[in-house]
Amino acid sequence: MVTEPEPVTGWTAIRKGLCPRCRRGAIFSRVWLWRLPQMFAYCPECGLRYEREQGYFLGAMYISYGLALITIAALSALLWASSSWSIERAIAIASLLFLPLVPLLVTASRVLWIHLDRRLDPGAD
To answer: Rounded to two decimals, what is the model's pTM?
Structure first.
């Protein structure tokens, strides 16, 4: 007996980087060790075009900026509270510690933007 796969929720699709329409196709390739993941132009499952127009990912830049500020602020507060460093030094070191997280943050912000935009304006394919 063949069973249908469990439906994927919106939050699971965001967490796994799946297409907002079919929730099966990946938005990014899965290569992290040798090179940065590449974003697909279309969903490999349903053919949804991810970039709706020129400059579409400007909104993702705002999300990325906000996530970066929150991450650096949290790292700075943690370093400042757990050491005798000045706040300036804690911010500088937190910024350096943040740099390896940038590729993850950029991919996450694009996935969040695609899902948010498709939720707010689903008809514009």
So the answer is: 0.82
